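User: Continuing from earlier, I have the next pair ready.

Assistant: Great, send them over.

User: Here they are, in order.

Assistant: Folding the first of the pair now:
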Amino acid sequence: MKVLVSDEVHVDSGQVFVKSGGDDCDLYDAFAGQEGVGLCGAAMGGMLFLLTGLRFGGVRFTVELHDNRPALDETWEEIVEVPFRPVSEETELRQWNGGASWDLGLEQRDYRARYCAVGMDAGNSKNVREEDEPQTDDQYLLQFWPAPPEPARVFKQTSRQAANWHAFATSPVG
């Protein structure tokens, strides 16, 4: 396992992205056809649209690359998986609106992406975290490993925030 990112990532409107070439997409396009899998929109090639509980400010965020499917860690309160394939040689974790980015160095091949969260409701209750305030309880983990494409899937959902996003992904309307 290789840790690609372990940092505070600033979110705006509760959004952060994995981007590989191509244009940005909107919320509705990102979740189209995912049939009830919210939190991580993968409907647009080369892009993941990641949602957080905190709407504005910094959250703890980790990205890992594995050789094989990692064991499911049930300590996470929210767990979803989606297919992902970079469409260019450069793949980055990016803050909203072109802010800071972290090079992920992923090859152009098929991956499975698992997005995990804890404390989404607490982050949403806080809503905004200023720079001088302590970290909120929400934190996020994004894991990649080589795998053939499979449909998006919810493994675990416990928070109101995740339930709302899964409901949105059932039939997003733009």
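And the other member of the pair:
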Amino acid sequence: MKPILHIVVCSTRPGRVGPAVAQWAQQEALANDKFDAQVVDLASFNLPVFDEPEHPRLQKYQHAHTKAWSASVHAADAFVFVLPEYNFGPPSALLNAMNYLVREWQYKPAAFVSYGGMSGGVRAVQVTKQLLTTLKVMPLLEAVAIPNVGQHLDIDKTFAPNDFHTSSAAAMFDELSRWAQALKPMRAPS
């Protein structure tokens, strides 16, 4: 059975580019053939600013949105975060979603497909990596950065990658697969 990969669309704003980039990332992951790759859109969970009365480590969730988000994160063996850069950092929707949970994240690898202007979202990735390590997520070096993402969108807003994006994705998925397998024993119930 292939590991489950969640390709997480991290921006929730109207008019976002994330879903188009995530669809491309899913196609690349499926072509890599090492994962059961699924796109997970943060916007679909409608998470308000963290509103659980108990600490997330206790997993005593009161709200349906938290229970749904918990089940989604728990089901994944690995993540690819598709994220833009907002003011040199990740979208607040991602930070909020990370804070909702603790144990569901642990001992899973994460890679990044970032996009934006000239920086391609790499500053947002660096901030996110630091935060993920607190949740015992293993952030990888291999990634895809998409500078000037608007130049890679077709008229119908489909993402049109170049050869560098495609080769970077292949390397990223190969490494993500290795880490997902290596961390699997740590995710087993003890």
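Worth noting for the second one:
The chain has a mean pLDDT of 97. Residues 76 and 84 are 22 Å apart (CA to CA).
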